Amino acid sequence: MPRFLPISLVLLSLTPSLALAYGEPDDEGLPSPTERSLHFFTDRLRVDPGYTDSLFSGYLPVPPLAYNHQLGAAARFYANDMAENGCFPADHSSCDGTPFGTRVADFYSALPIGENIASGHPTPEQTVFEGWLYSEGHRDNMLSDAWNEIGTGFPDSDPSLIWVQDFGGGGLSGQPIATSGTHDPLEPSPQDPLDFFLAVHDPEGQPAQVHLIKGGVCHPMEDDRGSGGMSTFLFQDQSGEARCIPYYFKVSRVNQEEVFYPSTGSLIVPVGAGDCPEWEDTRLPADCAPGQGVESDGPPLGGTGQGCGDPSGDPNAAYGAEETAYGSCSQGGTNAPRRLGLLLVVLLPSFLRRRRL
Fold first, then answer.
1. DSSP annotation string for 64-119
2. Is there a cis peptide before residue 185, judged by omega within 30 degrees of 0?
3. Which residues contact 127 (CB under 8 A, 6 or more apart)?
4. Nearest 10 degrees: CA dihedral of 345, 124, 223, 354?
5. How far apart, in whole angstroms, are the C-alpha atoms of residue 42 and residue 303?
6. C-alpha span between 306 and 55 (Å, rounded)
């Protein structure tokens, strides 16, 4: 492992830039559909922290995060490391003892950086809204304005329920308008309801229209959460017969520009089928008519959590009835989370009771 660069040198290094194509998986399959979903639900929390629970109404909305493939590679590496070697370190070191900062610096050369880890939840949404949200250190990481990029990790060959968020504040050469999109559930049966989500960060303000193009048919999406150009959108459907469904999103901005997510090709919903590709490089055109949406609603959720920083700590201490565990860590940050009355410099271990309103 290369040595971790000192802060003064890292701050002078080149910062990651946004690729011309956005939303497609890279040659390593980053992000996977599961990792893409974890990214979206993080964005959904950020645009309206108090929506799920008024307990968090003191947190100000923060922009959705751009996906960074280097952070994604770091997060995937750590998820595989923990799954394959059976560790869950309280100090966020690798299973071989490599420190958190050194590990992430092998992939991502900027500061500040932060990380959340969790074990035990079966879905990305539950990990965000039932786990990390109700643990102070993890919540502050997810809602910090120090970050503008994210990489998410889930084991690619092991069924272990290990989840990783790696955050970065290295800056972008461009801001994606559509930051993340997903379908939920990720592997629906033909009888399941099926939701499609898109997160948008548009400095021009709220988009004029947002559409889902599914199987060549255009569907107007409803307002979900957020406002003022930091929003999520929703289309609710039924899965229907078993098949592989291609889809993509189109954002019509107020300046008349059209933005697509992914920027090329189509994502795939595997309805009752295990042999569907995750992405294909073609897409069916569609003529989208204007549509209007209404704000959706959802049940409040809860969780518990564990922080990081004490290498002697017992990572199993946070395991409960659902056998879930968490850890959070940050390094090199200079900006505090945008919460009223809060100044966070170092994330310390924190345990909060699960709360439902």
1. PPEE-HHHHHHHHHHHHHHHHHT---TT---TT---HHHHHHTT---S-EEEEEEE
2. yes
3. 38, 41, 118, 121, 163
4. -60
5. 15
6. 19
Q: Which of 232, 248, 318, 322 is nearest to 286 (CA)?
A: 248
User: Stretch 153-165: mean pLDDT, rounded?
Assistant: 90
Dihedral, 217, 220, 225, 227 alpha carbons, nearest 10: 130
Query: Which residue carries 């502050």 as its tokens?
Result: 140
- Name the helix (H) or strand (E) containing 10: helix 7-10
Contacts of 187 (CB under 8 A, 6+ apart): 270, 274
Supply angle C-alpha 114, 119, 125, rounded to 5. 80
Helix (H, G, I), strand (E, B) or coil at 30: coil
Token digits for 89?
Answer: 């370190």
CA 106 to chain centroid = 21
CA distance 281 to 264: 7
Contacts of 27 (CB under 8 A, 6+ apart): none
> Confidence class of residue 353 from pLDDT cuts 50, 70 and 90?
very low
* 3 state SS for 306-317: CCCCCCCCCHHH
SS3 197: strand
170 has pLDDT over 70: yes
- Dist. CA 207–CA 269, nearest whole Å: 25
Average pLDDT, the chain: 80
User: So what's the pLDDT on residue 325?
Assistant: 63
- Distance between first and last Cα of the chain: 46
